[in-house]
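Budget justification note: compute hours in this period were largely spent on complex prediction jobs such as the one shown. Inputs:
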Amino acid sequence: MPLSRIAQFSPLSIDHIQPQSLGGNDDLDNLALACRRCNERHYNFTAGIDPETNIEVPLFNPRQQAWSDHFIWSVDGLLILGTTPWGRATSNRLDLSDDRREEPFIQNARRQWITAQLHPPGDDPQQRIIHEPTDGADGWL
Ligand SMILES: [Zn+2]
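Corresponding output:
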């Protein structure tokens, strides 16, 4: 089993890129693996606001776009930073760095993963955790 699945505290869920509530189907190109948190934050949103431009853009599509074209890790490995309007809007909508709360659970978990040498993810997409980058292979982010 890939490390990306073992390192989760609960099974990854199947998320619909185009939400079922908006007519999304079960075709593989509309499905993405997601941690529960990302799945819940994605909800039925298909777009988000780029905080730099305040323009609404479609969310990152892990089936059609490459993660590394839209996101980077902060140097300390704790934050996912959007580098394009799509990346920034997605990072903002899904709160990928959990930086809105006093207790940033994601950042705390990433610190532990770094200590365990499980993070940041390497070049192998199978080693990547879903709310972490997957380079578009099968996950959200
Ligand atoms: Zn996630």
